[in-house]
Amino acid sequence: MKRLTIALATVGMIAAASMSFAAEKTYNVLGQPLATGLIQKNKEQPFFENFAANTGLDISANYKPIDVTGIQSEETLRVLKNGLFDIVSIRTAQAARDEVFLLGQDLVGLNPNYETARKVYDAYKPHFAARLQEKFNAKLLGLWPFGPQVLFCKPEIKGLSDLKGKKVRVYDQSLAQFIESIGATPVPIGFSETQQALSRGVTECAITGASSANTAGWPEVTEYFMPIGFQVGFNGYAINMNTWNKLSAEEQQKMQAAFDKMVDEIWVYSEELFEDALRCNVGKEPCTTVTKYNMKEVPVTEEDLRIVADAVKAVSFPAWSETCEKSYPGCATKWKEILGPMTGIE
């Protein structure tokens, strides 16, 4: 509570600073962490820094990456609901701690690639949006994936079976339950603290996007890289409904169109970054977007792929639905209606 109070005081100063823009409308925007890399740097930040031009509206954005505010990722939807920010960049895995239904579109094993992730997103989106509005007084503007969340390890591994007994950094409940199911110990650590945790042995392995990890220097403190995707790391944008409702229908249409364009661009850019980082992390060419390292690539076997694919039915959906039903009765049935045809879970 003390940490949140300090963070809110920081936000108060940010909001006060924006009052000087009284001549035009200014939105306070909470962005992705600087530490997450190129999507934040090359897509998100430029979009908000040129908000008026990109939306065609007489609105500027007072944009702050979350890791310069003192606010934690799991608090983003709370500060949006409270009106401290007009728009936030949702880090879904962390935000799902306040509303587990949001995590239902990225259970371990559900999204093995970008093509499948897009189908899952399109199907789940209206229900995600409805829950967001109901619980947080927020309108969903769009979601995009960081890309397949892959494995970095300091000690030698030859496959998923070698994770047994090891400490593995995770970022959400679904991943933690999966890691536990294969005999490893899940260690929840924030992204920005993970590189140091790997260096000090607090965790032996860690999972995140290939490009984000490269940008954050994970290959400097790990030696083995296994490009098997557990999830795709959905993130995106939401606007406070009070802010949204002050816009005319025409203004709303322009703003939504601008976010649709940016989100679609990030989907494409994310895949480009992922493919390049796969090469860069293990010293292959071409390597154009991130740093070239010389990690040892761990081959992904059919057995490893089967373990992850089977996780939806065997681990992640059962565990997720049990938790979700406690706060949102009927959510498991809703999930089956939405994604049952894709997963075979009835």
From TrEMBL:
Signal peptide: 1-22
Record keywords: Signal
InterPro entries (alphabetical): DctP_fam, TRAP_DctP_sf
Spans through the membrane: none
Residues in coiled coil: none
Cited Pfam families: DctP
Source domain of life: Bacteria
UniProt xrefs under NCBIfam families: TRAP_S1
PANTHER family xrefs: PTHR33376, SIALIC ACID-BINDING PERIPLASMIC PROTEIN SIAP
Name of the molecule in the record: ABC transporter substrate-binding protein
Species the sequence originates in: Desulfofustis limnaeus
